[in-house]
Amino acid sequence: MKVEIWSDIMCPFCYIGKRKFEAALSQVTFRDKIEVEWKSFLLNPEIVTDPSKSSLDYLAEIKNMSLEQAKQMTDQVAQMAAQSGLKFNFEKTVVANTRNAHRLIQMAKVHLLGDMAEEILFQAYFIEGKNMDDKDTLITLGKKIGLDEDEVRKMLESDLFEDKVRQEIYEAQQLGVRGVPFFVIDNKFGISGAQPEQVFVDALYKALGEKEGASE
Q1: Looking at the predicted structure, is the pLDDT value of residue 210 above 90?
Q2: Is the pTM for the entire model greater than 0.90?
Q3: Helices 99-110 and 135-144, interaxial angle, to 10°?
Q4: Which domains does the chain have, with CATH numbers?
Q5: Alpha carbons within 13 A on the beta-carbon side of 161
Q6: What pLDDT score does 216 carry?
Q7: 161: left (phi over 0), alpha (psi -120 to 50) or beta
Q8: For the range 83-88, what are the long-range contacts, defined as Cβ-Cβ under 8 Å and sequence gap of 24 or more?
Q9: pLDDT tier at 212 (50, 70, 90 boundaries)?
């Protein structure tokens, strides 16, 4: 069984959804038969990296709200994240284009390190407040998960994996995906958003039932 997950590392619900999905996987009896592939999605492909600006400032700008209102909104998300064991630091997150981070994820996938890349990038962005468009930061994170430092540097200095990022964004468009996270199970079942873990458990067992029924 294959589960594809479209996600952007600047999306808080994607990190929360990852935790909820992981909790669901721990409850199914066929976990070792499930292949998970993370797919690229850019919530704001045109965003201009500005490390001097926090995501709270940016949210207030694009939503035309006060900084206090933006903080109230992110506090609610942080409370939701806390229920999944995550401690978000929205005050530390900085405005950054995530295209290069997605290229790093694509490189990691080649080495079967896609899930590790997603996790370390989510953590770096939402918890540590790292700039996700800073090449030295991405090189350090790539090295942490086992990628070759020089290879990561060469990749970031080229356009390698750019086509793969664009391809997966196109696939999402073809599926009608308008927001992330978006989960597709065996090319049949789509789940949008950071749903309760039981929703994922039920969908996985339903997909298994259909697979077994088709093979009889």
Answers
A1: no
A2: yes
A3: 20
A4: 8-15+29-180 (3.40.30.10)
A5: 20
A6: 53
A7: left
A8: 84/16, 84/19, 84/20, 84/23, 85/19, 86/15, 86/16, 86/19, 86/126, 86/127, 87/127, 88/12, 88/126, 88/127
A9: confident
